[in-house]
């Protein structure tokens, strides 16, 4: 009877403590949440794939963090007009 009580006490004590796997899972979950938070700080989104106008910043969990590239409008050529008079037009006056 004493052995049964000792055995049950041992089983109860061991089963109440957190398992190593639970701690590792909790740490991994914290890392994933940290990466998602960093993604949102750079105005990104966790998606299955990034679009053409996005670049991959980091990985959230299994999917990449996609951040939109800045839109740069095309440069338009500046129209140059001659504001000076040539020597031949000055002599005609």
From TrEMBL:
The keyword Disulfide bond applies. GO terms for biological process: defense response to bacterium; innate immune response. Keywords: Antibiotic, Antimicrobial, Defensin, Disulfide bond, Secreted, Signal. Residues 39-66 form the Beta-defensin domain. The keyword Secreted applies. One of its GO terms (cellular component) is extracellular region. It is found in: Secreted. Residues 1-16 form the signal peptide. InterPro entries: Beta_defensin_dom. Belongs to the beta-defensin family. Has antibacterial activity. This is Beta-defensin. The gene is DEFB113.
